[in-house]
Amino acid sequence: MKLFANPTSPFVRIVRMALIEKGLNEAVETVFVDAWADDPAHLDANPAGRVPALVTREGARLTEALLILRHLEDLRPEPVVFTGNAAALSCTGFAVGVFDAAVAVIIGRKSAPDFDAGMVGTKRYRTMREGLARLDAALPASGPFDLSAIAAVTALDYLIFRFPDQDWRGIAPRIAALRDAHADRPSVRETVPRS
Predict the structure, then answer these.
(1) What pLDDT score does 84 carry?
(2) Against a cut of 0.85, is the pTM above it?
């Protein structure tokens, strides 16, 4: 299998973390690409040019993080990462909303230097703050390191990485505690976003 990835993408990170958690990391060749460069092999895997994109052993192209995660559950059912539990899916949805808004700000800045202060940028910042607070309140106090925990850690780390001047840990103390408790976990440690 081949995973087209970027070391800063939160969507890539949740897939990479799941691969490590499931013990599938060694079965996947990870190719880091610049999603803006239109690399032909990457575009063959995903014509939209977004990451992550997974080419399976059978040659199928999977182009969205949650679809890739669903496929990984079929490949290796244990340990369960992509649970069907409604509470876990709800937390995952909040987290994905947070980092989706953050990515939208980063992309928006490419076309409009004052994006953050505009109507769309302001709404994305609200989504990041309120979504993170709601995720923090909804995250179970304990439980498995499943997709809800993976996505929560990813959301917090991505906000800290991209918007370091804000107190994200203060908005999400429970997520910060979860992140700190799992800081030495290989899936967390090996996938921290880097420029």
Answers:
(1) 82
(2) yes
